[in-house]
Amino acid sequence: MARPxxxxxxxxxxRALQAGGALVLVLSAPQLAFGAAIVAVRVWPARDYTRVTxxxxxxxxxxxxxxxxxxxxxxxxxxxxxxxALRELVGQVQPDDPYIExxxxxxxxxxxxxxxxxxxxxxxxxxFALAPVANYQQxxxxxxYPVQEVDPLLALVREREDASQRAxxxxxxxxxxxxxxxxxxxxxxxxxxxxxxxxxxxxxxxASSPAPARPASAAAASAPAASAAAPTASERRRVERxxxxxxxxxxxxxxxxxxxxxxxxxxxVVLAVALALREKLNALPGMRVMMTRDGxxxxxxxxxxxxxxxxxxxxxxxxxxxxxxxxxARGASVFALSTRGATSTAARWMAQRENQADQVGGVxxxxxxxxxxxxxxxxxxxxxxxxxxxxLGQEVLTRMGRVGRLHKPRVEQAGFAVLKAPDIPSIxxxxxxISNPEEEAQLRDPAYRARLVEALAAGIQRxxxxxxxxxxxxxx
Length: 476
Ligand SMILES: [Zn+2]
Hints:
By secondary structure, this protein is an alpha/beta fold. The chain has 3 domains: 33-146, Immunoglobulin-like (Sandwich), CATH 2.60.40; 151-203; 239-466, Zn-dependent exopeptidases (Aminopeptidase, 3-Layer(aba) Sandwich), CATH 3.40.630. It is built from 16 helices and 14 strands. The strands form 3 sheets. A 6-stranded mixed sheet has the order 10-9-11-14-12-13, with helices on both faces. Helix 14 packs across helix 16. It is globular and about 70 Å long. The structure holds zinc ion (ZN). Zinc ion (ZN) binds at residues 250-251, 257, 266, 320, 322, 354.
């Protein structure tokens, strides 16, 4: 590009300086990758898998290797200088991360940054890159999966046992403290411990569980590993009698979902609603909730369906609180699957929006290819599933209408990917529009959320009363 000759004016001098700047950039073109800037680093710890995301303004060239004794994941990123953003990774590892003990970051070679993840257990790492989408620039992702996958059905049974075991131990603690105080008045923390052991021991053999009682702290710490052990006969019997409800809090991890006018994130509010609903439903005899996610991590849409099918769930309820392009849009909606197109343009719009979650959340394309068989199966959605889903949806919608406003008085239908389990009645509940300032405030209000949870639970219960599930032979 021809530039005018240098002019003695201020504007001309600025132009010349800009041209000079551009020249420097061109000269350093072969080293351009070295100039990659790290925008942010994030760690999403979860029992399913821990994800590490490194976001940058240019694609990163990285490789990884596993080292044993002790277990480490070593990642080399080529053409990168160590900077403060990358150093922040060290502080992002949580003490309760199931997989990562700590991270060390260093300039391994002049042009190579090395990350060493010291691991708590052996992992199956997956590395992939994501192109810019939504508010994200380039993302380099490491997903650390357990070597042995957690069996969700077995985890469901044992989670409950561990909880009651912890409750029993806590009760013993209180009893022990009391006895200690009666026997030895005055401050005697050590003696209360002795007294607790004395009262707990004789009662332990009378416990109905055939397995020896595990100490509460050990059970909690080894929860993921416990699922690897073979199921007992009594666990098998119990699981066959359960009614299992799959609750699916939308979004999570890298995918925040919709964000309200004052910053409330959909992924947080739907998780809070789902956890409260789990508590309510688990209190009902014979009913157990399986959560597709119970923390802040991303779960691909197909994986949510796969989890529900693995436990042979009797119902699937996806919970959302989305934004709409009109801020005045308001009210709750309930959706079922449609195989023929949407019942309204708004329903189609919502389904398209929800189905984009995998791009924002960041799905590993290699995994999707592995699951093409499942994908084909999921597309064979039966009309029976949709018929049952509409019944379930109507029960839930009726009760939600008593708590707040409804967007539409009937269950709508569209092609939501997450509702495609061919054999499980599945609905997606938009609890409110988080984009509506009034409804965002309601979603923040614990009292309103409690009423919402009450309505969802009542609708689900009513559905089971009218449509008792068929006996299932679940394979543990
Ligand atoms: Zn959503």
